[in-house]
Amino acid sequence: MAVVVGRRVGKAVVRNRVRRRLREILRQLPLAPGQDVVVSARPGAASASFWELREEVRGLLQQLGGLEP
Fold first, then answer.
1. How many whole angstroms separate alpha carbon 22 and alpha carbon 50?
2. 50 three-class SS
3. I need a surface site. Which of 5, 15, 22, 59 has the fewest CB within 10 A?
4. pTM for the full predicted model
């Protein structure tokens, strides 16, 4: 699992907050075994709430088949 948050997202405090949120989201979701996940945050992630980020990540992983059924 890797989380990438570039400088376009914001200053260090904002980038770290987004990184912590994404790590916690990935920790909570039931990822399928044997999957490598790389998440690259976009600038909109800085203004999104935890729950908005969680639903986006869950939806994308579900589309890709990265979640346990």
1. 8
2. helix
3. 59
4. 0.92
Q: Which helix (H) or strand (E) holds 10?
A: none
Tokens of 21: 């949120």
pLDDT tens sequence across 13-55: 999 999 999 999 999 999 999 889 999 999 999 999 999 999 9
Helix (H, G, I), strand (E, B) or coil at 21: helix
Q: Do 37 and 1 contact (CB within 8 A), yes or no?
A: yes
Q: In order of start, what are the domains of the chain with their CATH numbers?
A: 2-64 (3.30.230.10)
